[in-house]
């Protein structure tokens, strides 16, 4: 299994610290992932030739935002159409360092990973959110049907045990193996509801929800900072280098994204439309989601993954979403 426990930093293979960022290089391509001990909500990605080089151009990704939305047409611009599940100040973040990870029976598979975990919301609409990326550092790829996350027993419980959650494809409880090359970065987002109901207290969602609409979707937000992409760096969508955040449209679904760096190269993101859901630790089904992009202010691009809230509206229900990053070209 991949050990996607809720961690802050992975150290494996050649490594260089840039400020507080520590970098890990892919075993099969010129691509690096990094993490920051001082900010465990973010991950960092960059084209690179070595983890020991100075990496001046990179993108950072913050994954600490979660919403419940009432109207997908207007939630991104109308605060009455959503409720923001804020980080719980008393929450104890999970931290764990891992290095030189392997999978039994797969000698070619070596990997490192970094992740963060925190509680958002409250005892009604609230749960644990974890994100993780792994980077294969071995001579070949890895095969697994599951990732491992911290499985906190209740709202605001401490970091104690981990449990496996299915990332494999298939209907119902089917959990097939998935294979990943050493030229990919895998990124996972995980949410488990510990409150009583994600849609509980619907009247408190604001004017429009309170006047007849009901909460319909959960929205997880990944915030990409473009501040360190370099001169003329940009993010484009859906295979068109002329479609950036200024003209993609808030209601446009995206299935791919390119991060263009000033001189370092390009990273390609693939946003699949399927995700897994279940109860406890058991997968019970697979469904589709929507991916949208919106502007978030200066040097910020938001990517929202939008899931029907009915699939995560009971205590102990969970969802897992798993996109991919590869080295691209202009």
Explained architecture:
The radius of gyration is 19 Å and the shape is globular. The model is unreliable at 1-18 (pLDDT under 50). It has 330 residues and is mostly beta strands. It has one helix spanning 207-210; strands at residues 17-18, 21-25, 31-36, 42-47, 59-69, 82-84, 101-103, 106-121, 126-136, 142-144, 146-150, 162-166, 178-180, 184-193, 217-225, 234-237, 240-244, 256-260, 266-270, 274-279, 282-288, 290-295, 300-308, 317-321, 324-328. The protein is 1% helix and 47% strand. The strands form four sheets. Strands 7, 8, 9, 14, 16, 17, 18, 19, 20, 21, 24 and 25 form a twelve-stranded antiparallel beta sheet that branches. Strands 1, 2, 3, 4, 5, 6, 15, 22 and 23 form a nine-stranded antiparallel beta sheet that branches. It has a two-stranded antiparallel ribbon with strand order 10-13.
In whole angstroms, the N-to-C terminal distance is: 34 Å
How large is the radius of gyration?
A: 19 Å
Helix share, percent = under 10%
As an assembly, this protein is single chain
